[in-house]
Amino acid sequence: MNYFEFYGIPVSFKVDEAALRKQFYALSKKYHPDFYTLATDEEQAEALRLSTLNNEAYKVLNDFDKRMQYILKEKEILGEEGKNEIPQDFLMEMMDINEPLMELQFDFDEKVYNKTVQQLKEKEDTLYNSIADIIENYSDEASDNTALEKVKSYYLKKRYLLRIAENLDKFAP
Amino acid sequence: MAYSDKLLDHFKNPRNVGTLDKDSKSVGTGLVGAPECGDVMRLQIEVDDETKTIKDAKFKTFGCGSAIASSSLATEWLKGKSIDEAGSIDNMAIVEELALPPVKIHCSVLAEDAIKSAIKDYQEKNGLEVTVTESSHH
Lengths: 173, 138
Hints:
Chain A is an all-alpha fold. Chain A is built from seven helices and no strands. Chain B is about 40% helix and about 20% strand.
């Protein structure tokens, strides 16, 4: 059973997070070990399994990036680490954004900092906009692998942007 | 997690950081990335026209300490080597030299890929037969 099935919701990049939280709390209660102290060993083990599954599933589905990664892995679109290629021109761009970052670290310059933050934001928006339609309207029945491949490319590129954002945070004024 | 002295040394004092002229015919450039951790690595070799050996190697890596150390070590090893010798550098040799922990083995893979990709670029630029094959590890 995948995490979506566990909560009885359709596979989607968009999830009603408030509703999901409610379900998570309800199931946390339902499978809480305290309610199974008098149950058989088997029942206790089953409750523990479901309680663990509930925790894991919620952690993944409640986070946009983790959810995206989960769907791509379930669909076998995202390969193992080291097997996911990234286009050369994007790598080159990342090299170009990273280079001034390195200098910022030694010699902080507010102008360069702000410019990089701006550049990163624009890049992120452009990337997201290119797949926004798929994210919003994905349906397990109607969507095909071409759509998922695009999401994968977005997912991988976003790793780079997150990494840069992390670095920028380090020397934020 | 404890890192080896060699790894720390390469990380703190990376050798051969820099850029070679990527438009020069005697320079081969490899640009590779590990998207899962947002690493990007550029490794360049400059080949001596007479001796056909690598006379200079430079790198620039944005990534974790192990990725930086792996590429730094790779550039050190590349200098003075023939193309064939360079192409046979195996990622496991880097793992052993730096005593990389298992979770960081992919950094050495990245360095090997960068070497191969730089050699391929050089060979293609000069109309030579491409002798490196895609990595066989992982």
